[in-house]
């Protein structure tokens, strides 16, 4: 069991957890959610011992074995398989023990103890699953989307995203009691994602996973921990359930707050009206007490909603660029170039919004990188329109940030590099203002980028891109790391962008909302894709089938343990969304009904109260006017008349106030 009691957790001046109390039971599958920068990764640092609590108590069973994905990019020439096998730390330990026992035994073959130790080492190793370690590792590697021929390739021959997948496989290889996964889906495509879901559903230990992906969380978690405003709240359900419960909670809190505010206003009015009246002073006094004793319902803290926009491009060349009979691919050191795409003939026109589709490894990023001038074409030409200004966003861009510099320094550098044409809008104050519009306010503009959260870094890269005022946006998986609200803001900004957009994303909602035509990268070519995303989904399934058939025909030498059900065939995880949706809605409906009933009951009373209020106001005014008149020297009959009127008014006001008080008490009683 993991327990946090009143835990306080800080990062320099920032308090990320303040009095967090929560329990996680063995075997629970927990989703840890919250906005970018809320402190999710920091909480992981507490769990894995990287950080100490600044207050309160944190405890976890000492003997628990912990597995987590290393965050560094592996640099080794070890084969993919060996690298992943080594993730089984117990196995590695036992192998070392065996080697030591073998050495000892070889040194003195007659030593009975050494012989015994050797025998033990063998059995321990067998118990730890030595015999099938390799096929187990390979099943993980293949499941995460690698090809059979890649199993023995050196780790450093893979691109960054793929090496991070190997890190994930290595963590899954490790037998563990607690598995910590920090945004594991960021480097995965749809196939691998579905495979990972299936794997995690079978995982027997305790798991905590951080993710901004609703569908993934729903598939693999049954408890949700939410960090917000330094509070940690546990919800007994997956993400959708959590959203429902939270919506209900917020609604109730909002309703309770509104109700209380109304009551406070009412009491205050009563007090103001009667505090000076000796006859009613007691009632007024008791209400003053009631006000003082009232436990206040907190108002909802409005989430600082984040929006941004792309500036109108200074110019928009048309065509943006033209690719003629080009081949794209990689230049290799000791081998002929690796050609990925051939006969590419494409024009990109002003204002086009192109979604680039294609299964993993087909060359989407190669295409985008070549257009972004990160790599050259192997053959043919890429002709750019005059004044083309590319805004390129790729996951690796996060590495382009300087960990030691802060956001302000990044902006200053950018402004300087862009030259004098931008100088007018690059005073420090301008840059601070600009960063502020991207939610980097106050101290954060001076925080070294190396200490920022993943989502904060991605937001900074976005900000820097916007500042360059591009006319062609090339976005390669821009939503990784971003929380849902920021994704939403990006989608809105992209929709309003006036230049040309080329987007690679596995976020189907984003593709759907911002692209109106698609290119398909596959089988070595780039073509128009004639259809929508649903057609594409079908295409992917067919393509997966074709790949499997091809693999079968090629009859690979004894295939290692088969990867669990290929994505296409994996059973769709049961959708708990509908059920929970139904529950939540019913509950919300009930409480809305109750509120309405109460409102019905008090409505006539309120109406009468309002009219009394109005009459009291006018009677009060008449009374003051009369009193003012009586203060003047007047002829006797007029004095008598005014005096009579004043008396009548006084009686009326007294009666109205009496009624006002009765009504108030009735409303208070009904509302309670
Ligand atoms: N060493 C540090 N000094 C100052 N601030 C820090 C430091 N480390 C982290 N922070 C800040 O603490 C906050 C929490 O960071 P953390 O990485 O835990 O967020 P997160 O919830 O994982 O966010 P994301 O969803 O973006 O990954 C962030 O605002 C981050 O900038
Ligand atoms: Mg994080």
In short:
The chain is of the alpha/beta class and 672 residues long. The protein has helices spanning 40-47, 80-85, 89-107, 112-127, 133-143, 160-173, 190-202, 214-220, 239-274, 281-293, 364-371, 397-400, 407-417, 428-436, 454-467, 484-496, 508-514, 533-553, 577-630, 636-671, and strands at 2-11, 14-24, 29-33, 55-59, 66-68, 178-182, 206-210, 223-228, 231-235, 321-330, 338-348, 353-357, 379-384, 390-393, 472-476, 500-504, 517-522, 525-529.
Keywords for this entry:
48% helix; 672 residues; six-stranded mixed beta sheet; Methane Monooxygenase Hydroxylase, Chain G, domain 1; alpha/beta; Rossmann fold; binds magnesium ion; binds adenosine-5'-triphosphate
- Total helices: the number is 20
Q: So what's the CATH class of the domain at 321-553? A: Alpha Beta
Bound molecules: adenosine-5'-triphosphate, magnesium ion
End-to-end CA span: 41 Å
Strand content: 15-25%
> How many distinct beta strands?
18
CATH fold group of the domain at 321-553 = Rossmann fold
For the record, what is the CATH homologous superfamily label of the domain at 321-553? Answer: P-loop containing nucleotide triphosphate hydrolases
Radius of gyration: 34 Å
Model regions low in confidence, pLDDT < 50 over at least 5 residues: 556-582
General form: extended
- Describe the largest sheet: 6 strands, mixed
Class by SSE composition: alpha/beta
Helix content: 40-55%
**CATH architecture annotation of the domain at 321-553:** 3-Layer(aba) Sandwich
Spatial strand order of the main sheet: 5-6-7-3-8-9
Mean pLDDT across residues: 85
